[in-house]
Fold each of these.
Amino acid sequence: MIEIKQIAFIINGARRLNLTIQQMIDQCTDNPSFQVHIVKTTQAKEAIELSTKFSEEGIDLIVAVGGDGSVNEVMNGMMRANRKPLLAIIPNGTGNDFYRSAFNNSRQGDFLSALKNPSVMSVDVGKIESDLGTQYFLNIADVGFGAAVVEILNKQRIYFGGKASYALAILRTFIGFKTPHLSIQSATYQYSGPVFMVAFCNGDMFGDGLYIHPGAKVNDGVLNITLLKKIGLMDYVRNLKNLKTGKRINHPEAFYFAENKLRIQVSKGKAVTETDGEHFPTADLNVSIIPSALKLLVTEW
């Protein structure tokens, strides 16, 4: 039987907590059954160090309060620790795409009840190795267009936030994006040529609800790959409805398959990577999946 006594809330300090989330945290703090630690981050990557520290100190549950980037940092800290507590998520970001993928678009349920009668699910974790070290992702990582969107999105958030920011970043990226040439190799697949985007999918959606790989599951034990070779703005516009409703892109240059390991190399042009909305400034990568790497507290209804 799972018993939760010590809880650490790692909160993205850059985002305001609404009344509902604050009440969830207060209920836990006021409950004598729990010993609660609350930390608000003040700078990027701080949640990684906090998560590693709490994991090593024997915390039973780490709660990531924020968006996909915050969840990514907390998870990366846990993956670097020698012991791994339970992970829980209170979504408080723009897209919250991993939470929506994991719980099939369900909404946050009674958090206190979930703590008292815990149910957990195993989730896979993606792993990226490069000359810059090792980075983990919980939802989606990609090379090409999606990563270029994240670069612009992170820059414009200073001036323009909210859900419309994703759409604006996509349109701005199309204006100057130049398709790189990549070499993609795995045990069963090889390709070398122009790549608009190659996405490594643990979950099925990113970019605030765009289904980049419909049917992908966070606990299916494989990397679900979406490869888009030659795609333009009008192709995106024509398939936007499919992306929003969970249908596969209808285009001869769109390919879907599953692998356990991939090698990505840039052969021409410039390409970068993003992992759960976090910019990663290289695209020469080894990508793999770690099945059932973490336990996630079920909190949806």
Note: Residues 164-176 form the longest helix (13 residues).
Amino acid sequence: MTFTLYDASVAGFLRTTEAIAGILKKGREHYHAQGLDLESVTEERLCGDMLPLHFQINSVRHHSIGAIEGIRARSFSPPKPLEKTDYTSLEELVAQTIHDLKEIEPDEVNELYGKDMKFTMPGLELPFTAENFLMSFSIPNYFFHATTAYDILRMKGVPLGKRDFVARPVIKRG
């Protein structure tokens, strides 16, 4: 059996996005238990020139389900800003991302192998194949933003550890 494009992308996106849902839940619980303003954390940044938590969560969606949609459309661009950036909306966005990732059939992704697509933004256009886009652009960006979301909540005192981020391992059965 071969390791597929689906295995390399969507399966990992799903595991880590589920972990992000758990991290956000722990964030909510911590903020409530400490009597802190939960909404304030959506604007938190690791440092001044980095984008806030709501951007990181939006990018988790954009570089997972959005990446697959971009390959299908043969074009991918930076994410649009969220209309709602409150904490509950971020949790809902992650839940919707999990749902949407679960709806993707492996064959749908595997059939994209070798397809041409491009990343575009004003003044820049980068040509890719589907697999090169996922492996060298979208997956690294996805994990950067997922890690940054984890780090922001950890920095704000949410009791998170490595196991909260690495998600459930895929172990050999039987």
Note: The helical segments are 5-8, 10-34, 53-62, 65-73, 87-103, 106-110, 130-155, 162-166.
Amino acid sequence: MASQIHKTFTTDQVKELLTKYLNKEVERKHIQQVLGIEKSRFFEIIQAYRNDPKTFSVDYKRSSEARRIAPEIQNTIIKELAIDKKAIQNKDVPLYKYNYSYIQKRLETKYKQSAALSTIIQYAKANDFYLPKRKTPKAHDREVLTDYAGELIQHDASYHMWAPDSGTKWCLITSLDDHSRFMLYAKLVEHESTIAHIEALQSVVTKYGVPLAYYTDCHSIFRYVKGRDQRHKIFEKFTDDVDPQWKMVVKECNIKPIYALSPQAKGKIERPYGWLQDHLVRTCIRENVKDISHAQRILNWERDRYNYKQVHSTTREIPNKRFNSALQAKKSLFRTWSIPKPFLSYKDIFALRIERYIDGYSSVTIKNINFKLSDVEPRYPVDIRAYVLEQDFYELRFWHNAKLVKVQRLKIPDFWPVQF
């Protein structure tokens, strides 16, 4: 009868109190206060006691058998937990904990089964698939510090074994709008390079517009740091006295580069990608992904789910909804991108920069390849923009005195004509 009272009182203790009430030794309100029950509940208990004092009990008895999940669902849960455990134990795989919410979602989408999150956790603890939460010091808050879309783009790269069955590591490059947490760009590449980051920048700028600022770490691709990146010809230069290729493109697009000056600050960039990276690895493992194109298809699917369906833990909104709301409310610092003068094509902007001096024969040399130019002045510099068409295949665009004097496409293996 008294299913909650049994947690605090024994049957004999309750009987003693009820007897005192019936003997008019203690008033009802005091009995209610001691037992922590309402008036209606008190009269329900006292009636049961009056009807049969000998068999009266407050011990809880389950009226029906506890609900159990089907054996096939149990087997699926254990199977999925075992997959995660194997990945967590692999030091090359960037998984450090179980994701029970992912398993719950996978039960629904893959197996058309359902189980409560608490049930999955219960099975995890009972079968050695549980890791206590690690206590880590607070490194950086997750507060959204921007008021406008396009005010700050978080840009990052992570080099991990995203698909263990491939046996190799790939680099995941991502760009994210800080205000909405909308993922603007996400791509896997076999090797991190300046070209890959320039391509990411081109995708964001040409599709969404020119943002106010880009936020990155201090990797040499993004920033020259004295002491770390100095070369024998520029040893006297101080930090930021030399612009790497990526930074030159950013500045020509009129975007402000901002750098995370510590690992703690860099955590602000990395944390929003945690959900995407976590799901990417787990899905690649379960689909036995071996090549990067297959992994990219999974990444695209997970990115769309993150952007259009997932409620973000910080903003409490779906990223796409928050992003579009900002645009509709004219709370956006994205500017329409246009090719800066005197340049004629996006290939002049999102390209590697090379400077050479014209010799007495009106020629320049790059990687032992001689290029004859017309309508140029000997002994003067020529600005060469090398746009990547595909691997080892480039379009070279020669600019002299603010004029395009030559365009040539050719395949140049191992072409890297600049240090930064």
Note: The first helix runs from residue 11 to 22.
